[in-house]
Amino acid sequence: MKIGIDKIGFATSHLYVDMAELAKARNEEPGKYLVGLGQSKMAVIPPSQDPVTLACSAAAQILTPEDKGEIGLVIFGTESGIDNSKAASMYVTELLDLPENIRSFEIKQACYGATAGIAMARGYLALNPKKKVLVFGADIARYGIKTPGESTQGGGAVALLLSGDPSILEFEPQTSYLAQNAMDFWRPLGHSEALVQGKYSSQIYLDFFEKVYHDYLSRTHLSLADFSALVFHLPYTKLGLKALRKATENATPELSAKLEAQFEASREYSRNVGNLYTGSLYLSLLSLLQNSEDLVAGQRIGLFSYGSGAQGEFFSGKLQPGFKALAADKAISEMLLQRKQVSVKEYEEIYRSSLEIADNVLIKHDDDPASFVLTGVKDAQRKYAYKLAQ
User: Fold this and answer.
1) Is 111 a catalytic residue?
2) Full domain range(s) for residue 347
3) Which one of 70, 130, 178, 317 has the lowest number of neighbouring Cβ atoms within 10 Å?
4) How confident is the model at residue 190 (pLDDT cuts 50, 70, 90)?
């Protein structure tokens, strides 16, 4: 049977900071961020938003009442967990009014979490072909103000509805993966901001890509020419471009140019949002589908997932006829255009306030246009609201 992605939703904050302005404030040349990292704008996440609210906003875009009744499994991939015990997915099932006769849990392995969720979902759907699975990649990337990693922050959520007979992308059976214990990026217990060895992490990313990509080709007897596009996990978009150029080192100029043009389409959203951690790869896929003019049903898309620590995987899928409806939808590009720019000073104030959420204090959310908001913490319990239901 076919198993794959039937629907994709995406949500981020209504606020952003311009990367050229951030570069100037940090006494850097704007080109270091705009070209060297490949980033133009960075999402700024207010205190009223967290991985739960972002995930709910992403899922609400795509779920119908019929979908909700058919969901048997919810998997929440995140490395921005809000509790050391309780899964973020539990809040989501209530806020989205999902049925209670489901399995629901959270999964963590840095930026690989959503891909791990997809692997589990494929097994579940093979045994339950009439069911659907909701997989989230939702995170807020934080490294700290005036740190080396500051320019690769961001945040948002991707919601993937997986099913048999999918309308967007059918996963192919073969996959290649690699795991190694590496201290390239981590966030110790009690830390709200990540620790990273930037150059080391980037090099491991590229090493993992080469290993799993070539292993995949060896296992499948495919070649680069069999792919119409490659999409990547993009902590910053220039890193994906470096990986692509490793794949095209021995390719013809025509094939290299075609794949690089597709890559430009795939990084458009990430360039203007920043790092999504677990959702990044799937935002790249969504961006490709909505910004490329050269895709047709039946074409093969290669996907590279990477999570520091470290886990990598390369797999592929074939476009299904229904992807055209998603490709024609302009809601996400319009949402990104309608966001409000904040100054660097405002961004810093919002950042600090998001780290200082106190118990038994209400969180201001009147100016947040999102339907799902975090309203506060009472007796160490997070409180959420669906504003349209009030």
Assistant:
1) yes
2) 3-168+330-389
3) 130
4) confident
